[in-house]
Amino acid sequence: MFNQNGTMAFEIQTWLNEKKKDASVIIEHEGPLTSEKITQLIDASENALINLNLERKLVKRFLFVIIESLQNLYHHSYDKEVLGEAAKFGIFLLLKKGNTLSVISGNFLEEDTVLFLKNRIKQLNALTIEEIKDLYKIILNETSLSEKGGGGLGMIDIIRKTKQPIEYDFYDVTSDIAFYEFALHLPLNK
Amino acid sequence: MKKIEIEGTAKTPYVKFEENGQLELKGRSIPENSIEFYEPLVNWLEEYGANPQEKTVLHVQLEYFNTSSSKCILDIFKKLEAIHKAGHDVLIKWYYEEDDEDMLEAGEDYQTIISVPVEMIEAEL
After folding, report:
1. What is the H or E stretch that residue B96 is in?
2. Model's pTM, two decimal places?
3. Distance CA B4, CA A190 (A)
4. Residue ranges of the alpha helices (H) in A21-103?
5. What is the pLDDT of residues A40-75, one digit of tens each?
6. Which of B62, B65, B67, B76 to mutate to test the interface with A (most CBs of A within 10 A)?
7. Which ipTM was obtained for this model?
8. A173: distance to nearest CA of chain B, Å?
9. Are B102 and A68 within 8 A, CB to CB?
């Protein structure tokens, strides 16, 4: 399906199929995220992680990333209908490919937040682990909670705990709305 | 003043704050809206701080917590810090599971931010 510029219009199913290609799907969610749904997904994820026979500290670490991703979707997913999908639509995937576990989320957001988010992630990914740890303490101590959550701590804490860069992409949906893909790939043996 | 005792849920910790200065936070802290959960606890400490016990001990035994909880936990610690700075004996006991470097590091981070003594205790949670 092509848009007016002759470029491929964003399609959720096409994106999903690409993400799931060659991977084992452990958890998949598509749709609005409620508090109850998040609880169910956390429980399902925890059981799945335990069944992978990981060390307890890794189960907890991966679960932390899963919880932060789900709660980011809860707080930041676009609150109106887009592409026929309900308000607060989000996608969450927990995939296994070889010896890597991937936590992937997707949500619509306003086009004018894309640049801010892109720059933010680039900045954080460029920091050393020591710099991330220092930044974490500064933000923890100096900023207040917004209605939407952790005051920007979430991504910092994810990088701090996993020592993995955040992977991301943005897809134009309309002139005002983009689709934001967040991904973290976690080695299973660290 | 009345004690606070709140049963734990899938997303919020068990809480017991007693007028005798024994305080407990135990379980998981992953609510979507942590301000809603923690505000009454912070308010209780504010009131307690006006006339605290000779010794106040907070036991923190959290399996894990989300980043919005981490801020609220710091708010609680800052209330205890105010009590400590007013010349009263305050101790935070931070429990972490064996090999859980993340929980140990979190406790150490709080240790560097606040002036209340924080004791790290390895335990089975």
Report:
1. strand B89-96
2. 0.92
3. 40
4. 35-51, 56-76
5. 999 999 999 999 999 999 999 999 999 999 999 999
6. B67
7. 0.93
8. 28
9. no
